[in-house]
Amino acid sequence: MALITCKDAAFAYDGSVVVQGLDFAVNRGDYLCVVGENGSGKSTLIKGLLKLKIPSAGSVLLGESLRKSGVGYLPQQTAAQKDFPASVYEIVLSGRQGSRGILPFYTRRDRTIAAQNIRRLGIEELRNRCYRELSGGQQQRALLARALCATKDLLLLDEPVAGLDPIATQELYRLIAQINRETQLTVIMVSHDIPSAVKYASHILHLQNKQLFFGTAGAYLHSEAGKKFLGGAVE
Fold it and tell me: Whole-model pTM above 0.85?
């Protein structure tokens, strides 16, 4: 069974349909970028995938392994969150909270997984630094390590490069693609950057209050939606 299956799903807000006609599946190891303009339904879909919103029509089905393991989620940061006074290690370790159950303290396994993901993200030298003293790119690496601590199956990333400079943006894109490729961890990323989405993702879901396109990144290049929104930006 696919990790996520949407069957003719729709979501509404205050009685008005925000996005509809969602009919796609995400399998283990996929790297899906959800693209579209502001107000196209991307954020509403993310809430649906997180089970924070119930479909007004159709269904969203989660595979058994995903129901057990949960989702590693990296939301957009608020200004207050960027100023959080904790160490990088504490931030990353907090990603293990959902797996603790009734245990009051982190286990040795929790600490081992946190240390592994700190190494994976290349932020060992930042381990004891205060999170709010980091650059935007460093903060996003710490939050990505935190999200990796939360699941073995799915990373859900909401505009992870928002506000980053071009160098930090490309570094983060490459790092996410590397993690997907080396670990077969499924990635779903929301992005306004369609050229980069096509460059790094295996699949594209394009929304405009309905599903305009779903398929491989290669097929998207030749689709009507791809030709219209890329305008020759990617060959």
Answer: yes
